[in-house]
Amino acid sequence: MNIFEAFTLIPGLFDGDEYTTLMSQIKEDAQRQGLMLDSPDELYKWFTTQVMRNLHVVFTMNPSGEGLRERASTSPALFNRCVLNWFGDWTDSALYQVGMELTNTLDMDRSDYQAPLTLPVVCDLLPSPALYRHAVINTFVLVHNSVRKLNESETKRGHRIMALTPRHFLDFIKHYINLFHEKRRDLEEEKLHLNIGLNKIRETEEQVLELQKSLTLKSRELEAKKAAANAKLKEMLSDQQRAEKEKLASEQLQKELAESLIEIEKKRTEVQKDLAQVEPAVDEAKQAVKGIRKSQLVEVRSMASPPQPVRLALESICLLLGENVSTDWKAIRGVMVKDDFMPRILNFDTDSISPETLRMMEKYIRNPDWDFEKVNRASSACGPMIKWMKAQLLYSDMLRKVEPLRNELERLEKDAKIKTTKGEDLKKTIAKLEQSIAAYKEEYAQLIGQAEAIKADLATVKEKVGRSTQLLKSLGSERDRWNGSCDGFSQQMDSLIGDALLSAAFLAYSGYYDQQLRDLLFHRWTAFVEQAEIKHRLDLARVEYLSSVDERLEWNKNGLPVDELCAENAIMLHRFNRYPLIIDPSGQAISYLMKQFAGKNISKTSFLDDSFRKNLESALRFGNSLLVQDVESYDPILNPVLNREVKRTGGRILIRLGDQDIDLSPSFQIFLITRDASVEFSPDVCSRVTFVNFTVTRASLEMQCLNQVLRSERPDVDEKRNDLLKLQGEFAVRLRHLEKALLTALNESKGKILDDDSVISTLEKLKNEAAEVGRKAAETDKVMAEVSCSGDLITCSYELANNSFQLIKSS
């Protein structure tokens, strides 16, 4: 490049067929422009002139002071053939403008904010009065400058420093934006979930009250149904008793009726037997009367003075027919003239003969002329009438004889009729009673069914009330804690900007420094936030704010030492924007990373390894994690990877590695690591990476010494202690998961909780498990305290070791 800069050509760059092709192309281009260039030297000279005129090369360097002098001596063309443009650090105004531009989409305004008079102003761009957003960006610049001032102080003390570049400020802002969105989203989601959970609990409390009211109503309804059922049962039993009585009466009546019918039949047989003796004579007389011709009757009526037998016959028959004519022949003839005279005789009812008529008939019967032979000789029409009257009188006499029997028969028939009617009435009454009893049975069955249903509902409601009451009682602590969390959400949202600012500054700047300087920086940043009256948590714990219990437990399981510095370093290894460069004198970070990223096919390599480039290409292509050791021998081939200089072509993500483009998998990760704590990296490297310093601190050394001494002197205590530490972490994680599961179950429940037995069962199961885990955690804390007492016996041992290390380190 020095030759190219000085002479605008590189000897031997083109040769053979490539040179011949180039000359042909140059000649064609010169001819198109109307130039007459024939010799190869003229053509090549014209070509180099065009290159010098049109080709622009920009070199960028960020060397330290010594590096700059070395490059100036070895590459003089950089200074006598190039235009030198020196870009120093960004001014405060530039930092402020960049911060405003990159955060302009964030909701960082507060209408009630009034900038304090003591607000330190970093540049003239800060308006007056400053808005909340302006005060925040102003604090960004103050934070960045505070690190520069710390570097200056450390340089004066002869300590190594991390070169501070604008990339650190950009990384700071990027961390801030990510944390702002993440924490705001988490707060909003948690608030939503907590509110839904609390609303579900409140709804459940209201529903329990309603259920308790319904218990009273259902109890009353059950008592009413029981009373109605008992009333129906009494009515049904009363009707059954009455029906039984009526049935007995009916059976007795039927028995009596049957006996009466037998007696009636017997009496009727006797009457019919007696009457049957005279009935032939009556029938014979009727037939004889029927044989009387009309002419014969006319003949009798035409008699002006009928014979005595004829007169007696007609007088007696008129008397029998009930005609009051006495012996008046004219009146008798009047009766005979009537059309119904013969039908009355033929249809005569013997029962109509009264005793008076029989008495009056005595005089005719005793008269010798009232004889069939005599009358028949006198008139053939009156003879059959005498015969008919004698038969009627004979039949009447027989009727008088059987009158008692007939009366008895009539009485029996009347009594039988009454009993039959009464029997029918009893049957109707019994049928009606049976129908009523059937209806009562059906109503009683319905009432009993309804009572049983109410009883079952009552039992279900009682069980549900009992379970829900117990559930609400067990959820009381969660409800109080969630209410407290909801009350604190507005405060957390107010402090979000300040908390994210401090946490983002920690992630961007603190990794290079030891625990003491980290705390010092954080204290200064907190002072800047307070001076600007930016709300923040007064007790902001970096580890708890930037990691979860689950993550910390996983880190510890994978061999991360249990101390604050290592936890902070693990957070940086988890949240980095720029790939990490780890300072790890003790090698504990390597062990931790190999376990932590074992699932991502992590592999180790070194800048000193001949297969370094091959390993790098493989990790880039397949998305594996790569741990590169001996980073003090840094190879600039890694610059495009650290800068994430990618290009997208046809759906592929490519990155330039040396002279070729390599496919880049999104899951690729790289960790640079050195065990040399004294190495000071160039500003170029510092700008591309996130430093993570695992240099042993006093606290971590004490913990490691304690572990070693316990493992050697009291292996039983050490094993028990490790098991308990593991259990404590697992219990804390499990309790957190169970609380989340409780909230999830409440949030995902459809409708009312008490209407879904599966939700109640899930909540009960989760709460019972949480109670059991809490109890075990309490027991673990108690045992851990006992183990700690055992550890105090050997405290002097690791304190001596720690003091010895610090003495050697300072020397």
TrEMBL record:
Q: Where is the Dynein heavy chain ATP-binding dynein motor region domain?
A: 554-773
Subcellular location per UniProt equals: Cytoplasm, Cytoskeleton
Q: Which GO terms describe its molecular function?
A: ATP binding; dynein intermediate chain binding; dynein light intermediate chain binding
Going by the entry's taxonomy, the superkingdom of the source organism is recorded as Eukaryota
Q: Which UniProt keywords apply?
A: ATP-binding, Coiled coil, Cytoplasm, Cytoskeleton, Dynein, Microtubule, Motor protein, Nucleotide-binding
Give all residue intervals belonging to the Dynein heavy chain coiled coil stalk domain: 194-526
Q: Enumerate the Gene Ontology biological process terms.
A: microtubule-based movement
Family statement drawn from the similarity comment of this UniProt entry: Belongs to the dynein heavy chain family.
Q: What is this protein called?
A: Dynein heavy chain 7, axonemal
